[in-house]
Amino acid sequence: MIPKFDQVNNDISLYLILFERQAQVADVPKEFWASHLLGLLPYEIAQLVAREDVWISRYFEKVKSLLLKRYKLTAEKLRQLFSKHCKSPTATWKDFSYEVRNYFHGWISGLDISTFDQLKELIIVDQIKRRSFPEVREHYIDEWSQLNNLEKLTSKLDDYDAVRTKRDFHNSTPRKGAENRAYTTLNQKR
């Protein structure tokens, strides 16, 4: 029917949609959906549901709501899934397009993108971020995923480059004075 949920590589909302479709196709009565779903979840996620009231674990909609609240993906994670998602050998191209469309929609709706101009800016920002150096990403790690405005991003990148250029300039200029003479004298003795 449907493989076990992999919380590292799968989106819970997409997984639940696929589960519902498979359950409908297999004509599984809705009152058994929750128990079937719990059997497909990793142990630690099933424990999360088990800690709730007993009546919650009997109703698929309640379990679904609980899982969506707990494992909702961030806009950044959805962007990564959209960008790097590959078609499974067992999936159809229709399934693949549905998954990619959901990742894209989740990404842009998570950032409140509602106009074409906002979408253009987001795509340009994404391209610039991809081409930036890893040390720049590390420097702005706390705010990197929230930098979705083109002007703010380019300003930060220019500031970083300006500071790095100054630092590199200071490190590469030869020192004059006693330190240089001492180094030269020491090397001549060897």
From TrEMBL:
| InterPro entries, per database record | SCAN_sf
Q: Where is this region: Disordered?
A: 168-190
PANTHER family (UniProt xref) = RIBONUCLEASE H, ZINC KNUCKLE DOMAINCONTAINING PROTEIN-RELATED
Protein name as it appears in the record: Uncharacterized protein
